[in-house]
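Ligand: tryptophanyl-5'AMP. Inputs:
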Amino acid sequence: MAEYSVTPWEVKGDLDYDKLVRDFGTSYIDDELRTRIKNHTGELHFMLRRNVFFSHRDLGWILDRFEHGENFFLYTGRGPSGNTHLGHLLPWIFTQYLQEKFGAELYFQITDDEKFLHDRKLSRKQVTEFTHENILDIIALGFDPKKTFVFSDTDYIKTLYPISIDIAKHITFSTAKSVFGFKNSSNIGMIFFPALQAATCFLPSILQKKNIPCLIPAAIDQDDYWRGIARDIAPKLGYYKPAQIHSKFLPSLQKGGKMSASSPETAIFTTDELEIAEKKIKNAFTGGRDTLKEHRKYGGNPDIDSAFQYLKMLIEEDDKKLSEIEQEYRSGNLLSGELKEIAAEKVKTFLKEHQRKRMQAEKIFDKFILRD
Ligand code: TYM
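Predicted complex:
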């Protein structure tokens, strides 16, 4: 089988999501869970209908609590290593839907420490600038300012530190090494850092002085923190284990792997000029055939086509339109260039609107920020 790896800092190769579910010990989101969610939300988000959010831990338990009148909070985050790309928006758009439908509070952690420590080339100043830029993208997605609390680790450390040391005391170096692959050459900041990402799982319970269930929507690359640290520690500190809902990855513009900020050639950034975004899509990895004759005869493969996946996973909400495009492409009627044209137009419209909201976000920035 093709080599691949999924860690919080690297996703590469041909992804096998079934193997990930087995290796990480998560569960698939099944029809029963989808029906239960629909009972509360009225409609299922297209990312649930299309299995983009495909795996979970304790989602049934979160719904049980909710049905017994106990609200949960949402927790997600961003490591500000660069500008935001379309892949980051995927779990955030879904998180906004969950916030709206369940009326949930959202704690949004910006791990400026993590990215500074992890990436030799990044200065503190750059990370601080990216923090601001990334928060504009978050606000632009329409989160409720009354229920959304965005904080960066270095800004909010006075509150986070006591929780982190409670956690850190229970994690041996040997556990950290086996979960995250740390080596003797890893800097000691990185070795402590997982305690900070785990801390937010319990932060609202501490702030509000009662146990509150936590649901984490994110792509599955963040799972080490929950599987390896937070869920083990929770009962020892007297908190609920955090629940997760995992998405797949928006693919790279190139063959294999995910869209990644650390490899800019794989990504469309929210700050890209529209013409640049269009060019990137036109050069993206295609599931089309080598020659026109072959394409007409055998059809294209949307499953591996980056442009089609952007439509399916992020941009085209209309199931009917998407399925028409898919059928036409598979049958060979729709050419790869034509599919890319459709995707490029949609992405440009999406980006234009996002960039407009991003500019407005500057005005309401402070309403979202949690500080010590
Ligand atoms: P970061 O900045 O690497 O990623 C931010 C969020 O985007 C998701 N993600 C993707 N989702 C779909 N397709 C992609 N191509 C793609 N690339 C990244 C990530 O899963 C993540 O949800 N350490 C974290 C920050 C963090 C966090 C959290 C994330 C702190 N607490 C709680 C999720 C939940 C980080 O560096 O994320």
